[in-house]
Amino acid sequence: MDRRKFILGSSAGLLATSSLMSLSAFGCSTKKTVKSGHLVLRFKPYELKLKHAFNLAKSSRTTTPDVQVELEYDGIVGYGEASMPPYLGESVESVTKFLSSLDLTQFTDPFRMEEILAYVDSVAPNNRAAKASIDIALHDLLGKIMGQPWYKIWGLSTEKIHPTSFTISNDTPEVVQQKIKESEQYKVLKVKMGVPGDKELVETIRKATDRPLCVDANQGWNSKEYALEMCHWLKEKGCIFVEQPLPKEMLDETAWLREQSPLPIIADEAFQRLPDVVRFKDVYDGINIKLMKSTGLHEAYKMAVLAKSLGMYVMLGCMTETSCGIAAAAQLSPMVDWTDLDGNVLIGNDRFEGLIFEDGKVIPADKPGLGVSIIKGLE
Amino acid sequence: MDRRKFILGSSAGLLATSSLMSLSAFGCSTKKTVKSGHLVLRFKPYELKLKHAFNLAKSSRTTTPDVQVELEYDGIVGYGEASMPPYLGESVESVTKFLSSLDLTQFTDPFRMEEILAYVDSVAPNNRAAKASIDIALHDLLGKIMGQPWYKIWGLSTEKIHPTSFTISNDTPEVVQQKIKESEQYKVLKVKMGVPGDKELVETIRKATDRPLCVDANQGWNSKEYALEMCHWLKEKGCIFVEQPLPKEMLDETAWLREQSPLPIIADEAFQRLPDVVRFKDVYDGINIKLMKSTGLHEAYKMAVLAKSLGMYVMLGCMTETSCGIAAAAQLSPMVDWTDLDGNVLIGNDRFEGLIFEDGKVIPADKPGLGVSIIKGLE
Question: Which of A205, A273, A212, A275 shows the shortest CA–CA distance to A242?
């Protein structure tokens, strides 16, 4: 088997050996295998190398598994990706298995997006990042066919984009101060709380800067009373909202907290698919949309429309991803209240270029599709 | 003044003399007045001639006032229209005044749809048909620039389109029988009720055909008990839903009726703009979206997304319109449960061609924008 080729989705079996996961094993796809007038799927694992180890409450990691996807139609290629932080339950193996099970060559018109995505969604439950990779590649492909970026197709303007937040992870006060200094281009800082030393981290940050803070508690506060106390304390510290303060199962407690809290309460781990928006309308003030949870842009756009119509806040988040996935999310960002799109700057081996960072904002390029292209040499 | 030219929106004053309203006064627009890289608006009154007089409870009419709109950008022209049945409060005068007050030349990028439509919406309250005419022309223009019809841009497929209903208006039993025979290509019939003789009309129809019926009561039933009695009777007669059974102000009574009724209760007169969807979620089973009420396609698409997400039925209706307005609505029709798009076949002087009627369904052409073009000689 020629490892320099992408895996052809409809014919290849499960394929995820470690040798395929190194950069040098990647190669160009061969166009001669493409049947004209049909959608052809290719994909390959691509391990994201984190610039700094990710220290969470119970674990630490230096890489994120990722699968890069190509969807080709009549010689035009759309790019997508699946990023699989381990706690979400997907892996290179599961994504490869899912993508291998798809037969997209049955579709002769890429514009039948609802039909194609309904098919993809029907093949197996969950597998949300795998599904997102197809949706993202399809959007890139269609945008390229139409000659426009998706923010324009949706009628949006990049002037409406808010600055992205940037996560300051915990460390010694000296290192935290250094991180704050090095992140001066970011106008909003994000802190992970619900772990030992979290209040001290906020104090350390406040000694160095008065930039607005947002907080992700990652379900880390176990009682509604403590969560409320923290919200009041954080309000005084210049925090603008709190993500997932309580475990996702604690709906009644979260609804109570939301009524009492001086800060908006945003659903992250609790929130996955479109029907969750209506379900959470009286529980949370807003939702954190991430493409790897929403199964991609098509459903994410509907989530944003729905949430805004219901008077909810919308936040746009991400996993560690290449600029491909971040550029996809950025298309939606003019619609949302808060963006948290720093996933591509956390990795040292981004595969795409073209996404713009300006005035603390992540701005999609005014180019067709997602507006990104593969960095030379990383094809 | 040269009557053969369209009225240039940003410079012309209020202009709606009766001589402008005859077909012979229409002429081509002159491209030399168009500033490159700017949106240029032109419009002219166009009186729709009804094939048969429209007999409503309290009035009868043989024409519908309409204003035809063109939006040009870099030599590409998008078409739109405003149709103004008198009971909705708009007129050639009000639409002309509204369109004349717009300065669209300030926009150098037609893709900034949300910004452009927000500006149009901000100029004056109400004026929904006038606003729709701009939205429809903008969609036609953008679809032409992208080279795709809007149903494709939204990812929809025409296979999902349901047959349109066709209105059988009341008359002598013999004439009604004749109308039913002549409308054999329509698979669903619609009856206006809430007027004297309405039950007899249903009986007459049922003697001739067992095609499904839908009913528009036009707020004509004044008590919830009578409305419920009618719903049970209509259920037995093969009716599939009832539009606006009670006056739009009777929200509590409608919510009660909805709980009791064996047929879905759909909001028509009560329903206008996007926020109404959420407001009516516990009052009606569904909504009737009409572009002349929704201010056009952009808001209508969001309405459909929202209503479907809330578990509501969506019906797509129209006014008497040319095939331009009907083709615009038809782009959305794969998303909805019921279509009622017979407005163009009710007029004798349609100005557009290209919309497809097949198997009782109104199907947009697979052509850029709205997929319609002006009939030769009617430019």
Answer: A212
Q: How many domains is chain A built from? A: 2
Residue B130 structural domain:
7-146
CA geometry: angle at A176 spanning A173 and A180, to 5°? 135
Number of H helices, E strands in chain B: 12, 18
Of residues B253, B250, B286, the one with CA closest to residue B271: B286
CATH code (residue A169) = 3.20.20.120
Judged by DSSP in three states, A256 sits in: helix
Please tell me the distance in Å from B312's CA to the nearest CA on chain A.
Answer: 13
Q: pLDDT, tens digit, for every residue of A267-294?
A: 999 999 999 999 999 999 999 999 999 9
DSSP notation for A89-103: S--HHHHHHHHHH--
Query: Residues A166, A85: one domain?
Result: no
In 3D, which of A377, A358, A318, A17 has the Cα closest to residue A161? A358
Nearest to B305 among A111, A305, A334 (CB): A305
Q: How many CB atoms lie within 10 A of CB B50?
A: 15
The DSSP call for residue B121 is H
Which B residues 310-349 touch A at CB under 8 Å?
A: 310, 334
- Helix, strand, coil % (nearest 5) of chain A? 35, 20, 40
What distance in Å separates the CA atoms of residue B218 and residue B56, rounded to the nearest whole number?
10
Q: Which chain A residues are Cβ-neighbours of B117 within 8 angstroms?
A: 155
Among partner residues B146, B152, B275, which is closest to A147 by beta-carbon distance? B146
Query: Mind telling me how many Å the CA of B143 is from chain A's nearest CA?
Result: 9
Domain shared by A298 and A273, yes or no: yes
| The pLDDT of residue A15 is above 60 | no
- Report the predicted TM-score, pTM, of the whole model to 2 decimal places: 0.91
- Whether B125 and B190 share a structural domain: no
Say how far apart CA B29 and CA B22 lie, in whole Å: 17
Check if A76 contacts B (Cβ < 8 Å).
no
A chain contacts of residue B152, beta-carbon cutoff 8 Å = 111
Is B155 in Cβ contact with A114 (below 8 Å)? Answer: yes
CA distance B330 to B352: 14
Number of Cβ pairs < 8 A linking chain A and chain B: 63
CB spacing of A157 vs B112 below 8 angstroms: yes
Chain segment B185-241, per-residue pLDDT in tens:
999 999 999 888 899 999 999 999 999 999 999 999 999 999 999 999 999 999 999
Task: Give percent of chain B above pLDDT 90.
Answer: 84
A159/A99 same-domain check: no
Chain mean position to CA A304:
15
User: Does the CB of B119 have a partner CB in chain A at under 8 Å?
Assistant: no
Give residues with Cβ within 8 angstroms of B373, minimum separation 6. B352, B353, B354
Query: Which of these three, B146, B171, B201, is where a domain ends?
Result: B146
